[in-house]
Amino acid sequence: MAELLRTHPLQAWHAAFEQLPETVGIAVEPYVAMVDVRLGTVGAQTSAALGADLPTAPNTWAPAGSGRAVWLGPDEWLLTSTTEAPEELEARVRAAVVPLGGSATDVSAQRIGLRLTGARVRDVLAKGCSVDLHPRVFGRGSSAQTTLGQAGVVLLALSDAGDDVVVLVRSSFAGYLADWLLDAALEFTPTPTS
Amino acid sequence: MQLIACPWCGPREEVEFSYGGQAHVPYPDSPAELSDEQWAHYVFFRDNPKGRFAERWNHSAGCRRWFNAIRDTTTYRFERVYRLDDPKPLATELASSRRSTAP
Q1: Which of A4, A89, A188, B8 is the most exposed place for a label (fewest CB within 10 A)?
Q2: Which of A60, A137, A147, A155 to mutate to probe the B interface, most B CBs <10 Å?
Q3: Do the Cβ atoms of B9 and A130 come within 8 Å?
Q4: Is the pLDDT of residue A34 over 80?
Q5: Would you call A76 exposed, middle or buried from its count of C-beta atoms within 10 A (0-12, 13-18, 19+)?
Q6: Is A100 found in the same domain as A119?
Q7: Model ipTM?
C-alpha cells in the first residue's frame, strides 16, 4: 500500500506568507494535539486531576502545561499540548475528567493555527471581525470565538500590546482564510515601484 | 450590523446567532392525554405580538449556548438578554431599561 504523505493544508501559502512585511506577519503554527473537554463543574479537584487550571471566565485562555486551555463555553474547554501525541493527550485528559463526570474527545484534526504578529494585526483582523480587539480589553489571556471574514475562528491574544494573535481555524477553511488574510494585509504591504 | 449581547460572550454580530422561536413554552405535563388539537397548539401555535417578545436565541458561531432575549418586534431592539435558568423579566423592569437604553 502506498504511503500517504501528511501535508499541511496551508503548504501552498508558505511562500506568500514569507513575503509579508513585519507589520502584518503571518506564520503557520506547527501541529498541536487538541482535546475538547466537557465538564459540568470545575474546582480544585479538576486542577489536581488535570495538572492545569481550566479558565472559568468567559473569553479567556490560560497556559496549561506545554499547551493552552481555552474557554469555549460554560462547560466546554479546548486543551492543547505541544509535547504529547493526540492519542496520549486524549487518554490522559479522559482519565482525569471521566471520574468527575466529564468527557474528552480528540479534535486535533479539526483546527490549525495561524500566528499573526506585527503592529498592523488589529487592523487586518478588524476588516472581518467586529469583536473589540483593543489591548485594553483583549490583552494576553483573552480569547474569542467569532467569525473572521465569515469563517468561524478562535482568536487567542498572546500579548498585551495587541500585536500577537493566534487564529485557530478549521482545516477545511484554512485556505479560504489564508487568501482572505493576504487580501486584508494587502493595504499594509508595500508594493514594489518600477 | 446590529450587535446582540450574548450572556456569556458579550456583544457580537447578529450573524453569529440563530433564532429559536418563542421562549417560555412549557412542555405539556401529560402529553399522552392531549387531544390532537391541543397537541397541535403546543407544537405549532406561537404568539406573534407587535412589541416586546420573549424569544430563544443561540450563539451558534460563538459559545453555542442557548439564551433568552426580550426583543421589540417593531424596532428590533434587544431590551434584555438573560440565561435560560433566569426568570422572565417583569414588564415593570423592562419599562425602566427601555428608557435608559433609548438613544
Answers
A1: A4
A2: A147
A3: no
A4: yes
A5: middle
A6: no
A7: 0.84
C-alpha dihedral, B77 to B100 to B59 to B42, nearest 10° = -60
Dist CA B5 CA A117 (whole Å)? 29
Q: Mutation test of the interface with chain A: which of B8, B18, B83, choosing the one with the most A Cβ atoms within 10 A?
A: B8
**Which residues in chain A have Cβ-Cβ distances shorter than 8 Å to B62?**
144-146
The helix (run of H) or strand (run of E) holding residue B3 is strand B3-6
Which pLDDT tens digit goes with each residue over A102-129?
999 999 999 999 999 999 999 999 999 9
Of the partner residues A73, A76, A152, the one whose CB lies closest to the CB of residue B61: A152
Q: A4: number of CA atoms within 13 Å, CB side?
A: 3
- Of the residues A52, A82, A106, the one at which a domain ends: A106
Architecture of domain B3-26+38-101: 2-Layer Sandwich (3.30)
- Give the residue from A106, A121, A151 where a domain finishes: A106
pTM: 0.88
Helix (H, G, I), strand (E, B) or coil at B100: helix
Q: Is B84 on the interface with A (CB under 8 A)?
A: no
* pLDDT higher than threshold 70 for residue B23: yes
In chain A, the percentage of residues whose pLDDT exceeds 90 is 82
A contact residues 47-66, partner B, Cβ 8 Å cutoff? 58-59
A72–B1: do the CB atoms touch at under 8 Å? no
The mean pLDDT value of chain A amounts to 92
Q: In terms of CA atoms, which chain A residue is nearest residue B64?
A: A73
Give the CATH number, domain containing residue A167: 3.30.1360.120
Does A43 score more than 90 pLDDT? no
- Residue A191 pLDDT > 90: no
Domain, as residue range, for A150? 14-30+110-188
